[in-house]
Amino acid sequence: MAKPFRHSRNAGFRISLLTIAISAAPAWAEEAIERVEVIGQAASIDKALREQKSADSIKSVVHADGVGQLPDDNAAEALQRIPGLSVERDQGEGRFVSVRGIAPDLNSVTINGTLVPAPEGDRRAVALDVLPAELVQSLSVVKSLTPDMDANSLGGTIEVESLSAFDHDGLFYTLSGEGSHDTNVSKNSPKLSGAISDRFSLGDGTDNFGVAAAFSWQKRKFGSENVETGGAWDFDDGARLGEVEQRDYEITRERTGFGLNFDYQPDDYSNYYLRTLYSKFKDTETRNAAGVEFADAQASGERGDAEGWRDLKSRQDTQEIQSYVFGGERMIDLWTISGQAGYSQATEKDPGGIAGAEFVGDFENVGFDGTRKPRVSVGGDFYDPASFTLDEVEWEKVSGKDREKNIRLDLARDYDLAGNASQVKFGGKLSRRDKTSDTKVWVYDDFSGVGLDGLQSGNVDYSLGNYGNGISAGAIKDLIGGLDRDAFYDEENSRINDFDMREDINAAYLMNSLDIDDWRFIAGLRYEGTEFEAKGTGLRDGVYESTQSRIRYDHWLPGLHARYQLSPSTAVRAAWTNTVVRPTFGQLAPGFAIDGGDASFGNPDLKPLESMNVDLGIEHYMGRAGVVSGFLFYKDIDNFIYNTDLAGSGAWVDFDEALSFENGSSAKLYGVELAYSQKFDWLPAPWNGVLLGANLTLSKSDASIEGRGAKRTIDLPNQSDTVGNLMLGWENDRFNLRVAANYKSSYLYEIGSVEDKRNDLYVDDQLFVDFKAGYFITPALQLTFEAQNITDESYYLYTGRHAYNAQYEEYGPTYKVGLTLTHF
């Protein structure tokens, strides 16, 4: 093994290192062959497949390679390479993960065995882009839950494991530096990360205590360009549009992550651990918008009168996640006792920013051209600041917190059943979760003819049409800074969106595993009792009301798993499981607003989603990094949730509009999941360095909804019929290359109305292609290059039919160069 570089404090270290590497290249070639076996793509895939093969459940795994790095920038983007998984993107970055077409809010995420709360006030889904890849040792997705696992996922449970000192033999460290270039805003961004771990001897033990630490920091500058209609199409008289808006985003996203983990293994029968994780995610965003609302909805190419506007949003949003997990395991004769206590907290804070500064004006001979990417057609007066006067400035301050505390105890005993190895396992878990959201809003108006002159910034760089100048955030802040903010406090929007929700879950289970020849069976029963309470404020015709809702429900969830080993490398798996998923906090929100014949409100009385799941498949492991598998899956879902208009029925029979959420009766999801991976190391050079990975998931869903006396069948929201990945890689002792493509088909995003599907919103299909290359300058030093979104894929949301825009957004490619120093 090559000698490590231990000293890096002097300024000339990197230059000296490169000089030594170039001059010594022939000497380390033989050593590098051994090293690549440890850190190559195939080795990482091999390790993941070994874990997948031995699992009792149907499971897919992504492992960090030997240098402590996942194959992508954040946990969400690494997970999209797994069969059946796709990601929802925010400004082009992978953020939320969908499993087998199931929406992110209906899957759960754990870090080191404890549930991760969600920073966003209305969601359960965890934004996995807050987890830098360097803090993660492995990611797995369990698609068929065993009774000893939390049952709160419909598609799968994502398990995040952070770095442990026992992942490596002795001292390990890695240090990386990276620079990236965003083509949309032509800005460069830095990134630094590293990890270190080592083992020590305590008492009479040998290397029985381990310490591991990891950090990551990135400050990324990027942006996007957007044109959207919000789905404001009228299809009763052709296709006529009510309004259209152009948006330009400039964002600085700063990520900071740190993890510190301790492991103690005093003997061969026990181990104890402490896992800590801190992640901070700060977005500083400036959004300029310009749009028109037509006096009468009009078709493409027509011209008419319109109100025009220019609008600014300037805010800073900070999200933090903290996780602390203490646990251990002890074997006593035939018994194994394990336990864990966890505390996690997620917060979201916006200390105060411009939620909207809108200038308005009236214009003639205004129109648009095109329906997919409509271009606004206006006269020169639209670009004259004197044409606009300030209508209002909205200032918003947001604070939210989501805390989860849990304690778990498991006991297992091995025993002999008629000559067959068996184990009985039982235990329980107590979880206590509290989620709060507090919003304060001030709306400044009556500016007495204040115009855009003197409040504008420079020209906005916008490629989807003409734009003109933006609005200065500093000038707006100066304008309202001297006003009496108490006089402009918006009590309605400051109170009805606030809530305090408490969710307590008590769980217990009993399961038994049995090995009979080549069969392995697991049968068990899980109980979960839930108590939910929500407090908030409603507004009914100008009068505020305190709201409080309590609900309790119990679920008995049986499960059966079977695995048959056809050969040492081939297994058939089957599973019958039952799961329960609580509604999102936004759907459960206790606040409401009722004004005459219009109402909007959450529904704290929603029932949880219940799903009966069946999985059947076969796996065959072959050669280096090799597997071929196929699985069939079926889900029978009760009480799925959808947005609807309840006007005309029940308590809302006399209302014109009553927007809320309802439980549907039932939905079905079924599909097939295929995967293949292999390294062609039996071929002659250079073909023996080729790696190929591919997976494809085909699914179909059916669900029924009703409202306003109508009923129809829909696909499950967020469910793509087709999800696929293709990875082509190559590696030898010095180089490694990878091209990866990720595809997901279009899916239903939001229901327009139950009685008319023409205004349903759909997300168009997407194909993202990324490229990554690495070169080992020395066995310890690797140079990397990466190109993300090289096909310049866009995000397109359409209304009813593909031709009619709801939102179109472009991001552009991103290019990265990095240098990583590693010692094993």
From TrEMBL:
Coiled-coil region(s): none
Gene3D superfamilies given in the database record: TonB-dependent receptor, beta-barrel domain (2.40.170.20), TonB-dependent receptor, plug domain (2.170.130.10)
Chief localization: membrane
Top-rank lineage group of the source organism: Bacteria
Signal peptide: 1-29
Keyword Transmembrane recorded: yes
A GO cellular-component term linked to this record: cell outer membrane
Location of this chain's protein in the cell: Cell outer membrane
Limits of the TonB-dependent receptor plug domain: 53-157
Membrane-topology annotation of the record: Multi-pass membrane protein
Keyword annotations: Cell outer membrane, Membrane, Receptor, Signal, TonB box, Transmembrane, Transmembrane beta strand, Transport
Sequence ranges assigned to domain TonB-dependent receptor-like beta-barrel in this UniProt record: 364-790
Transmembrane in keyword set: yes
NCBIfam families cross-referenced by the UniProt entry: TonB-Xanth-Caul
Family assignment from sequence similarity: Belongs to the TonB-dependent receptor family.
Full protein name: TonB-dependent receptor
Biological source species: Phytopseudomonas argentinensis
